[in-house]
Structures are given as C-alpha cells and as structure tokens.
Amino acid sequence: MKTIVLVNPPYSFWSPEKNYLRPFIGTLPSLGLLSLAAVLRDRGYAVKIIESASLGLTFSQTLENILRENPCYVGLSCTTASVDNAAGIAQAIKEVTPKILTFVGGPHITAIPRETFQRYPFFDYGVIGEGERAFRYLLEAIEEGGGLKGVESAVFREGERIVINPRRKFIENLDELPFPAYDLLPSFPGSYRLPFLNYLKGPAASVVSSRGCPQVCTFCDRSVFGNRYRYFSEEYLFDLISYLRRQYGIEHLAFADDQFAASRPRLVRFCEKIARAGLKIRWNCDARVDSVDSALLKLMKKAGCWMISYGIESGSPEILAGIHKDIRLDQVEQAAHWTKEAGIRAKGLFMIGYPEETESTLRQTLSLILRCPFDELNLSFLTPYPGTKIYEQAKRSPGFTEDWSRMNALNCIFHPQALSVGALKKAYAGLIRKFYMRPRITFSYLGLLGRSPENCSRLAAGISRWLLTR
Q1: CA dist., res. 103 & res. 375, Å (int)
Q2: Does residue 25 have a pLDDT over 60?
C-alpha cells in the first residue's frame, strides 16, 4: 500500500514573538484535503494529513512529519499566500529524498499554472480544478507508466516545456463523494477551532455544502469550482452533520460555502429537515444580502443558525457597481436588521483599497458600517489574487506589488491612485477602532464571554502568551 501525505502549508511559519495570536485565530482544517483524502483512501492508498497552519507547525516540524511517513507522494494544497512555503517544503523533501514525487493543487496553481511551475522547479506535477478525480487518475497514469497527455487537469514538464492539459468536467453529483476524512486529522476536533468569539461552545467543525458561485465579483477567484452552483443534497448534509455530532460531539458548524443561500429552495429544505429532526447544533454561514428575507432568516434561526457573514465590501455605490457586486445599500441595511430581528448575529465583510477608492468612498463605507446593526466586522485590504478580473487590472497599475507571500488580504499590497499605502493603513485602523470602540459592541462581547467559558479561556491564554513576550 503506497503512502500519500497531504499537506496544508501555512501562510507563514509561526515565530515566537507572534505566538500570542494563536489562541484568537481560526484553525479549521482544509476541507479540500479532507475530501481528497477520503477518495484516495477508498482507492487503496494509505493517506496522512498534515495541517501545518492549524497545528502551528514550524518548517522543520512539517518536514519531519512528512519524512517520518516515508511517503511515495506528497500533495501540497496552497493559496497564493502559501505557495512559497509549499515550494520550500517541496525543495526540502527533494534535498533529503529525491525519489518522493511532489504534487501541488489548489486555487493558485489553478489560476496561473505556467507561472507557478516556471518559478518553482521542485513541484513535479500539478492538478488544476477539482482534485478528487483528477488527482486519482493522474496517480494511476504515473503508476501505470503511460503517457500523461490524456490525463485531464494535469500539469507536468516535458523537458523544458510545461504542459497544461485541459480540465476535467465538474463532478455533477456531489453526493457521490465520501464524507470528508475527519478521522485522519491529528487531535480532531480539539485542535481545530473557529475564530475567537465566532461561537459559544465547541467542539467545532467546518463543512462545505456546495461548490461554485453564480456571482461575477471582479475580486473573487472562481477558478477551482467555477460559476455554476452545485450542492450536496439535504439528505447527505443531514447524515454528515449527524455523524459529526455522534462521532465527535460537534456543537458548532461553520459552513465554508462561498454563498450558502444561493438556492433558496434548497436552503429551505435543509433548514426544515434540521428543524424537524430536532438536531441541536449551532452553525455559521456566508450569504449575500439580496438572498435573504425575514421569513427565511427566521427559519434559519429555527434550524440553528447563529451567525451570518454578509459580503458587502464597500459603502460606495460606485465601487459596488465597479466590482460587479450587484447589491444596493438599502438591501444591506434591510438584511442586517432582518438578521438581528431573527435573533441571528450579523457580521459585515468589507474591503478597502479598490482602484476607485478615495477619501470620500472610505467615509461612505464607515457611514454604512456604523448605521447597520452589525455585531462583528471583518475588514481586509483588497488583494488582487491571480485568476480574478481585478488582478489583470492591477497588473497594469504602479500601485501593485505582486508579492505572493504577502497576498493574504491582511497586507496592503495594492493602493489606488488617489490614496497612498500609509493613508489606507490609517483608514483601516480608523474603521476598526470606530466600529469596536462603541458601548453596544463592547457590552455585546462581554456578554458573549460571560456565556462562553471556552472563549474566556482563549482570551486568558492569549493575554498570558502576550505577557511572556514583553
């Protein structure tokens, strides 16, 4: 039985001076790797998963864990921000044991396969798009010693030439996939948590209920799963959630869908099934403000919905039109109020630093944030990821610094013509401060801490670690 080690590299390896942040961040595992692992195991492979990011592993620990398994193959799933680390791992593996074959998959290689292979010579093979079937057939072709020209979604080298094969068609019936291989995760579910104060009580887990997003936002990369919305049936999801409850005692779920409410009929069926069964579980999801209404939100609450994150992006109608968000500000305000009325926490997701951003549009964003009853704010810098329409626009701009390792939405690597990097960072700090430094938000968080011993423990651990670094 051949061993495959699947690795989720971190965005950046942990340093001692930043260790105090670990109790506050989310450490949920890669659902793509869990699904891939389940399929490969069913095909007879011995599969190991190494979640470097979630477990806070260093480079040397990651390498040691990989080599300990003496694998035939190592698969590295990575985003743009983690591809440098993935390449470093692949190089270190080759330097120790050159016979191990290295594979790379995920959104970055799917978006720009040729550039990735040109930059990183230690990747032997790549898989673009959905990985479950593509990776399996690529492995079979390699093991049979045949040619790779007919293997869909494969990326490989022929001498100095990089070959990128046509992509496989999407999996039509997602219910054919086995449950994600949560059992292969070290110390699951104890080591895997939602972000601080994004839940009341664990253990927690993440689940994906659909693939693909029908929207056309210019900042979003849809290269892996495309624009066509496909979803697991409510029966599949109910069985999966019941399994997680029964096997691991999961109390809170995070749905990792791009747009959980993209199909109202499907969402209604799911919520009604959960509510009828009396399945006592809380859950979070992401949704668009134009995909919910008061009746739907009340049903979601009845089925256990605890928090909804709304992708809003900006308070400027001009920017929303420019990024093809296709929502109105009155819809944002209405959805936030409906959500609160239903007894669900509302989280606003915003970005700053669009090509059209100005001091005026930043004020519009602040105004929207403050007049909506959001319980939480997630603010990021616009990051022009490869594979997005805005990436092609940014590449022509002198304000774009294409440093893959820093492209994680937390670093300001692009600035518009009207604003400097310093001005954007100042605006970022100001928006965060003005949202959170309000009595309503402060008392809300104190109330959550009072109801959640786990979050209190995480806060104490973070403070303790911070004091040790002083």
Answers
A1: 41
A2: yes
**Where is 329: in which H helix or E strand?**
helix 329-341
Tokens in use for 144? Answer: 């049979």
Q: How many folded domains does the chain comprise? A: 2
> Is residue 252 in a domain?
yes
Query: What torsion do the CA atoms of 404, 410, 416, 420 make, to the nearest 10 degrees?
Result: -110
Query: How does pLDDT run across 176-197, given as a tens digit for each residue?
Result: 999 999 999 989 999 999 999 8
Contact partners, residue 104, CB within 8 Å, separation at least 6: 75, 76, 77, 78, 83, 86, 90, 116, 120, 123, 125, 126, 127
Q: Is the pLDDT of residue 162 over 90?
A: yes
Q: CB under 8 Å to 386, separation ≥6 — which residues?
A: 80, 108, 111, 112, 115, 221
**Are 138 and 248 found together in one domain?**
no
Average pLDDT, the chain: 94
CATH code of 250's domain: 3.20.20.70
Q: With 60 as the cut, is the pLDDT of residue 114 above it?
A: yes
Asked if residue 373 has pLDDT above 90, the reply is yes
Q: Do 141 and 229 lie in a common domain?
A: no
Question: From CA 144, how far away is CA 31, in angstroms rounded?
Answer: 29
Q: Given the structure tokens 């997680």, which residue do they identify? A: 244
- List, in sequence order, every beta strand (DSSP E) within 235-388: 252-255, 282-287, 305-313, 345-352, 376-381
Separation of alpha carbons 327 and 350, rounded Å: 14
pLDDT at residue 208, as a whole number: 97
Considering the domain boundaries, does residue 389 fall inside one? Answer: yes
Residue 66 has which token pair? 């990989």
Domain containing 239 equals 194-437
Q: What is the CATH number of the domain that holds 76?
A: 3.40.50.2300
According to the model, what pLDDT value does residue 13 have?
Answer: 52
Listed residues 142, 164, 186: the one ending a domain: 164
Q: Which are the contacts of 452, defined by CB distance < 8 A and separation ≥ 6?
A: 197, 199, 200, 201
Q: Are 160 and 198 found together in one domain?
A: no
> Could you read off the pLDDT of 282-318 as tens digits, one per residue?
999 999 999 999 999 999 999 999 999 999 999 999 9
| Residue matched to tokens 């900042």 | 219
- pTM, 2 dp: 0.94
* Owner of token pair 């195991």: 41
